[in-house]
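A note from the maintainers: we've had questions about how concatenated examples are separated. There is no special marker in the raw files; a new sequence line simply starts the next protein. For clarity in this README we add a label.
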Amino acid sequence: MNHLRATLDGFRDQRILVIGDVMLDHFVVGQVERLSPEAPVPVVLFERDEFRIGGAANVAHNLRALGGRVELVGVIGDDDREGDRLQQELAHLGIDGSGLVRDRGRRTTTKMRVVTRRNQQVARIDYESDVEIAGEVEESLISEMTRRIDSASIVIVSDYLKGAVTPLLMTRANERARRRGIKVLVDPKIPHLAYYAGSSIITPNHHEATVATHLRIRTDEDAARVARAFRERAGCDAVLVTRGEQGMTLCDETGELHLPATAREVADVTGAGDTVIASLALGLAAGAPLADAARLANYAASVAVGKFGPAAVTPAELLAAIDEAAV
């Protein structure tokens, strides 16, 4: 495990560029004591509001929490409170959000969750526009990306199907990264699978991998077959399939590697994929072989799922997970 600890030390000040769909997560927290007389739904007595950054912004948060230097490129609404709050949260966390482009034709993607004191979700309301960006907004986003990619060690594309990730943006990102000799990592959505051709590493979850390949995963051998098929279909160099309580399966030109799950207790899987791709990117940027970077991502995921909502993992928490596994 010493080599993993050494890699963790190398996270600090690695420059990572994150491109994708940024979101604001709004939690309305309250207490439930009775059902409504108007309908069979709980009445939530309001206590407080909580705000967190989500989507590609949560990837950036994880990178920053682990010691990386982050620049974020994405789209927010023009002149809405949610966009302003998201930028304020980014600044508070030390994340460069100057690459966010304002689009007059949409609002900032916001997920409002009504939850109890015990983190039980009562309802969720989504405010969003998922039409793909085009015209001046797409040109501005590509320009922001291009200006920043030359100083990055790794590029992450965080796709949530909210419109920021387009075929042209992916083509330009991969072309520019190849010229610089750096990797492009993608947290995918299957409707955009063709967009990612030529990317370095794609990190689908088990459901996305099975949908893309029309194959089922019951065993590690099934997972290996699915990962191979996904890699071929996507046209990427490597695939890391996240499988929840079954761990992860890595596939590249050398073969497949299964990493068993290490989570002790699962509270919420929201945002776990953001933690995986952030820690994987930092591991690679710090010089770790892909297999070791995937191991670090597996340990980071075990910490993330023990937290409620989109959350970041710290170096101390990751180190503790590594040490616990070594016992």
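[label: protein 2]
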Amino acid sequence: MSNPLPVNPPETTPPMSPISRLVGVFISPGESFAYIARKPDILFPLIVAMAGSAAVIETLLWKIGAAQLVRNSLVTSGRAASMSADQLEQAVHTAAPFTAIIMHISAFLGAPIFLLIMAGIGLLFLNLILGAQVTFKGVFSTTCYASLVRLVGVVMAIPLIFMGDAEHLNPENPIPTNPGFFLDPSTTSKGVYSLAASLDVLTLWFLIVLAIGLSRLTGSKTKTKTVFLMFFGLWMVWVLGRAAIAAIF
């Protein structure tokens, strides 16, 4: 009698719901991203990321308004100091409608564009530089889930917007997750302020979690440390470049 053909053992890993994956990104990223690597999905984390971005931007527009946001931006950038009161009001009146439109659009398109760029960079690092063989879907799913750690910023920002002083709120840096939050942008050197505001704890956390996820996507063939250092190096180039440009102009 011939031996029966071997039967593949059933998968022993219990299925994880999208909510479980979201929670796992915070409390057990290695396990969660190993599961995401096997069964990548995009729609849920992308919608959550877009909802978080939209919540902050729409709260800014509803609570403070585009006109006040433009006025605050002109004051903190120092440009208001060279304007008369009438010139300032005219500039605010002209820019406010366009600012509102741009913010509404960015509320829903900003997150997908950012995540697509980060996923493209991740795919370049893994496949072309580190020699991995991963798909864009896997990288994009991992990037979307990693970005959910930034929801901490959403949870912090919305109460601060409601409770803060509308006249002094800096819409570009509304939460105390970087040294720039504690500096006065109107009196601090532009280069120093740009550097301080860019060194954000949530961004660093996102890069660490993203590196964990991309490492798991390759079956841990690429080390988390290697992936992180590649992203960290690129981030430092971006931070220092922005600070240099701000200092010059």
